[in-house]
Fold this sequence. Notes:
By secondary structure, the chain is an all-alpha fold. It has helices spanning 7-11, 15-38, 44-66.
Amino acid sequence: MAKGLTAGELRTSDQDELVTKLKEAKEELFNLRFQAATGQLESHGRLRAVRREIARIYTVMRERELGIVTVEKEPSDG
Length: 78
């Protein structure tokens, strides 16, 4: 999973990419929680960062659902 996803990067992604990123983030969060429970977690800050990435993804998805922000496509060459 890419580290440090910004809301701007997420807003330029399509719905399928958002779902994929959400799935990856949830898997990473599960693994981090498992490491924390077994005492193997080295970076506790990463737990917080992944939770925030998940929240950003959900926020962008909800904005689209409500029509607050539309998908901005990059201009194509040609």
